[in-house]
Amino acid sequence: MVAGGPARVPARAVRPLTWVNRTRDERRYASFDAYPFFTMEAIMAFSDETIQQVWQKARGLNDFPAAIWRKDECGAWIRRDDYGKKQSEFGWKIENISLGGPDEIENLRAFQHANGYDRANRRARCRVTADQTGMQVMERIREPRNREA
Questions:
Q1: Residue 32 neighbours by CB distance under 10 Å
Q2: Which alpha helices (DSSP H) does 40-147 contain, by range?
Q3: Contact assessment for residue 72 and residue 111, using Cβ atoms and an 8 Å cutoff
Q4: Strand 146-148 to strand 108-112: parallel, antiparallel, or no bridges (unpaired)?
């Protein structure tokens, strides 16, 4: 409480958080969860064939089987079986990186769920990347792990 008067409630606490009253940075970095018109079904409305083709476009490494492990454009680990699993550290999604283009294979990329693509600036939005802290330069990765960027 402020001396001499009632506690001030921030305007944001009263108003529901919508796209209009977000700050510019909040709008830029908002995830799909923030958009009421995006549903998980709409995001994951890709055929098994398309999912596999997008998976094959992600970076494979020699240390791990490419059929199971890959890295997204931000360098974060993703696991093939974790497509659409937001709660998994290695869960991933497919994003269309074109500015209004169709959902064709050349426009689609695999991203770890916390990462995405900023179409306006035409670059990846990286919140999570592979965790290689404490590793020597030439040391082989024993177990995939991610960390916040």
A1: 16
A2: 40-43, 48-57
A3: yes
A4: unpaired
pTM of full prediction above 0.70: no
3-state SS assignment for residue 126 = coil
CA-atom Rg of the chain in angstroms: 19
Handedness of CA 90, 70, 84, 102 (dihedral sign): positive
φ, ψ of residue 35 in degrees (nearest 5): -95, 115
| 125 phi, psi to nearest 5 deg | -105, 100
Bridge partners, 115 (sequence order): none
Bridge partners of 94, per DSSP, are 110
Name the token pair of 7: 């506690």
- Specify the residue for token string 């240390």: 63
Supply the pLDDT for residue 131.
Answer: 79
* Among the listed residues 26, 29, 7, 10, the one whose alpha carbon sits nearest the alpha carbon of residue 18: 26
Give the tokens for residue 12.
């944001």
What does the pLDDT look like over 63-72, one tens digit per residue?
Answer: 789 999 999 9
Q: Which residue, 143, 71, 81, is CA-closest to 110? A: 71
* SS3 at position 79: strand
Give yes or no for a contact between 12 and 20, defined as CB atoms under 8 angstroms apart.
no
